[in-house]
């Protein structure tokens, strides 16, 4: 369940509670409009906090994470989103179509990995290199490339530096593809197991049913008659 869906659920629950509490404070305790409103907002904040903690506990239990692990992963996701925004800021700075496509592909891969980890925080451990190294390298090299390509002077040395940076970025893009494959590897294995089980079940269903003491030869004899 995504953070957006969790937030919608919290609002869906808390808004009726806040409205009901306002009526209780205003009519039952005669606290006045402003005080009732302030108390109702306080109720909303408390219930929202409580439900959010309950949702976090469910996620930790489902994915077998400790409290420190969960908050560390959430911190890494927030930092990764900041880096993605930095990566996005270079779209208008690159000059060639190939560089734009390269940046777009890295952005797509990074967002997909982050999305999968958000859905299943346990997958973070299958993409640690992405969060700790590969995304940083992509952002840093893209920033340097955008700086170099914007310079008016393009001598031989700068052209060589730009070409080397493009090649390195291409390598990082391939590495990020491997990161995505690592994140998806457990899902692929799970899918293979389900397919094998389904094939086994279908195979059993296709086997003919025999009466007690009946053999395959007896069945063939009956069919020929």
Q: What value does the average pLDDT take?
A: 85
Kindly state the percentage of residues in helix.
over 70%
Q: Looking at the structure, what is the overall shape?
A: flat
Question: Distance between termini?
Answer: 61 Å
Total of domains: 2
Structural class: mainly alpha
Could you spell the SSE succession in H and E letters?
Answer: HHHHHHH
Give the beta-strand count. Answer: 0
Percent of residues in β-strands:
under 5%
Largest sheet: none
Number of helices: 7
Enumerate the spans where pLDDT stays under 50 for 5 or more consecutive residues: none
Radius of gyration: 29 Å
Describe the structure.
With 225 residues, the chain is mostly helical. The protein folds into two domains: 1-62; 66-211. The chain has helices spanning 3-28, 33-62, 67-88, 97-119, 128-149, 156-206, 216-224. Helix 3 runs parallel beside helix 5, helix 4 packs across helix 6 (156-206) and helix 5 packs antiparallel against helix 6 (156-206). The longest helix is centred in the last third of the chain and has 51 residues, at 156-206. The radius of gyration is 29 Å and the shape is flat. The relative contact order is 0.07.
Short key terms for the protein model shown above:
mainly alpha, 2 domains, 7 helices
């Amino acid at each position: 369940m995504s953070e957006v869906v969790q937030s919608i659920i919290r609002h869906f629950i808390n808004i009726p509670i806040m409205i009901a509490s306002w009526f209780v404070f205003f009519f039952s305790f005669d606290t006045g409009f402003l005080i009732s409103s302030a108390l109702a907002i306080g109720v909303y904040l408390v219930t929202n906090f409580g439900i959010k903690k309950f949702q976090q506990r469910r996620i930790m239990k489902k994915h077998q994470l400790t409290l420190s692990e969960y908050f560390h992963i959430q911190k890494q996701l927030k930092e990764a989103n900041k880096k993605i925004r930095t990566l996005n800021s270079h779209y208008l700075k690159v000059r060639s179509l190939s560089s734009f496509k390269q940046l777009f592909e890295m952005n797509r891969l990074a967002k997909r990995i982050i999305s999968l980890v958000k859905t299943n925080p346990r997958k973070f451990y299958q993409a640690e290199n992405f969060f700790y190294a590969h995304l940083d390298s992509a952002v840093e090299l893209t920033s340097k490339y955008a700086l170099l390509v914007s310079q008016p002077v393009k001598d031989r040395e700068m052209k060589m530096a730009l070409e080397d940076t493009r090649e390195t970025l291409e390598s990082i893009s391939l590495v990020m593809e491997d990161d995505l494959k690592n994140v998806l590897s457990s899902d692929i294995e799970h899918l293979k197991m389900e397919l094998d089980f389904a094939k086994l079940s279908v195979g059993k269903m296709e086997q003919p049913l025999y009466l007690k003491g009946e053999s395959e030869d007896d069945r063939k004899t009956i069919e020929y008659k």
